[in-house]
Every structure is written in C-alpha cells, then in structure tokens.
Amino acid sequence: MRVVCAVVLLFEAIVIGLFIPVAISLEGMEPSAAASLWGGMAAVALVLSGLQKRTWAHYAAWALQAAFLFTSFLVSGAVLIAVVFVSLWVTGVVMGRRTDEMKAAHAARAEAEAAASGDGGGEGSAATASPRQTR
Q1: What is the model's pTM?
Q2: Is 10 in contact with 4 (CB distance < 8 Å)?
Q3: Per-position pLDDT tens, the chain of length 135
C-alpha cells in the first residue's frame, strides 16, 4: 500500500507544482501567493512520498489530499484534477490494504504448512512434497 501511495504523491507533486503558473496566468493570482501555497504543497508531497513507511506520514498525506482538494477551488478546472488524484489516493489505499491482507494470509498459510510438514519429517517428506515445492 505504501508504495502505491508514494507513487501517487510523486505524481501529485508534479501536478500541484503546475498549478502555480496556471493560477498566476489564468486567475491573476500574485506569484508569491501561488508559489507559497502550491509550491509548499508540492514540497510537502515530495517529502511525504519518501516517508510513507511511517504511519504519521501516511496520515499527513491524507491531510494533504484534503488541502489539495480545497485549494483546487481557487483555480478554474483544477477541481477535476484534484478529484482524480484524491480518487487515485483512496483507490491506492483500499487496494493496497487488500493486497497487504492477502500477503499476510499467504505468509501465515505457508508458515502453517511448513510447521505441519516439519512434524512428519524424515525420509517420507520428499515423497509427499507437492509438485510446486519440488520445482
């Protein structure tokens, strides 16, 4: 899950950075205001993408998603882009959690099979190995 979230944050940082010239030219925003708002958000997105292994960074990225969505109302047409990235974020979290759960279940099953086969041990264990284990 964390890898997918980090990738979404990397691409989101690029898009957030591109909001700066759009806000200046189309919306007539002050360059310093646009650069500090979206430039800061882009920098935070880059930092959080590298820190996704930490739980607090994951929750901070949720806050960044909310800030990105709310500030997108300041630029025409940016709301659609923000909704797409927030949707990618939520999808990455949901699908990533499912994948993590499946990996944990698979590891637990493999550990249980290894423990069960360790009980029988001896010469007969090679003869009862499944074709998948012998490859």
Answers
A1: 0.73
A2: no
A3: 788 889 999 999 999 999 999 999 988 999 999 999 999 999 999 999 999 999 999 999 999 999 999 999 998 888 999 999 999 999 988 988 888 889 889 999 999 988 888 765 545 545 555 555 555
- What token pair was written down for 42? 């882009």
Residue for token pair 């003869």:
127
DSSP 43-79: HHHHHHHHTTTSHHHHHHHHHHHHHHHHHGGGSTTHH
Contact 73, 26 (CB under 8 A): no
Which residue type occupies 9?
Answer: L
Supply the Cα-derived Rg of the chain in whole angstroms: 23
* Biggest CA-to-CA distance, the chain: 80
